[in-house]
Amino acid sequence: MKLFVDTADLNDIETIAGWGVLSGVTTNPTLLNRVDGDPDAIYRRVCELVDGPISAEVVADARGDMVTEGRRLAAIHPNIVVKLPMGAEGLAATSVLASKDVRVNMTLVFTAPQALLAASSGAAFVSPFVGRFDDIGESGIDQLRQVVEVMASPVFDTEVITASVRGPVHVLEAARIGADIATIPPKVFYQMLQHPLTARGIEQFTADAEARTARTTG
Ligand code: G3P
């Protein structure tokens, strides 16, 4: 499973890209609202930091405007993927953009039937939201499993991006289910990085290396 980061924070993107683990980046209007700066300039910088699909979301709500905005975003950089919300307007805009070789990531997908529609309209990616399903007392992972099963059909060439990830367990479950991608908030990347036994092991190895140096040089 490939790992994307779900943020518009350039410092976090640069830090995590520096680990050599990133295959792409997703953003959305909420994430952009948490940072300062011109969105287009942010997208351009993200494209410099990470060589992979970079999702930029449209804010228009009518198909014609979505297509216009999507084409403008796609022109920023060849790695830009246009993010469109699930719905009749988003599907119609996706089919137009796909016919013009603009890749679309269909967001706010919750169920396998929605994913089927997204893939059928030509979406290159579908983003089922796991955490928001958990928030309403249902299993986001169960829904994700159905999406992955349905998208495995050779009829489709659509990659599944596990979105709305809230913790390392979501990432692990997405990988076990066979999702193509998980887009992970920076906070969850930092949680994945750490384990007390790793820290304790490094402390022990460092102490033993120093003890040996002291013995052999002293
Ligand atoms: O980018 C879409 C998705 O990952 C949002 O997550 O935490 O706002 O449900 P969240």
Written description of the protein model:
With 218 residues, this protein is an alpha/beta fold. The chain is built from eleven helices and eight strands. Strands 1-2-3-4-5-6-7-8 form an eight-stranded parallel barrel, surrounded by seven helices. Strand 3 (54-57), helix 4 and strand 4 (80-85) form a beta-alpha-beta unit. The protein starts with a strand and ends with a helix. Bound molecules: SN-glycerol-3-phosphate. Residues 6, 26, 28, 107, 129, 131-132, 163-164, 183 line the site of SN-glycerol-3-phosphate.
Keyword list:
218 residues, alpha/beta, TIM Barrel, 8-stranded parallel beta barrel, 8 strands, binds SN-glycerol-3-phosphate
Q: What's the domain count?
A: 1
Provide the CATH top-level class.
Answer: Alpha Beta
Poorly predicted parts: none
Can you list the ligands bound to this structure? SN-glycerol-3-phosphate
> Based on helices, strands and strand pairing, what is the structural class?
alpha/beta
Tell me the overall shape.
Answer: globular
- Please state the CA-atom Rg, rounded to the nearest Å: 20 Å
Gap from first CA to last CA: 50 Å
Helix count, DSSP H or I runs of 4 or more residues = 11
According to CATH, the homologous superfamily is Aldolase class I
Q: What is the helical fraction, as a range of percent?
A: 40-55%
Overall CATH architecture: Alpha-Beta Barrel
Strand content: 15-25%
Mean of residue pLDDT values? 97
The major β-sheet equals: 8 strands, parallel, barrel
Arrangement of strands in the largest sheet: 1-2-3-4-5-6-7-8
Q: Provide the succession of SSEs.
A: EHEHHEHEHEHEHHEHEHH
Q: Say how many strands there are.
A: 8
CATH topology: TIM Barrel
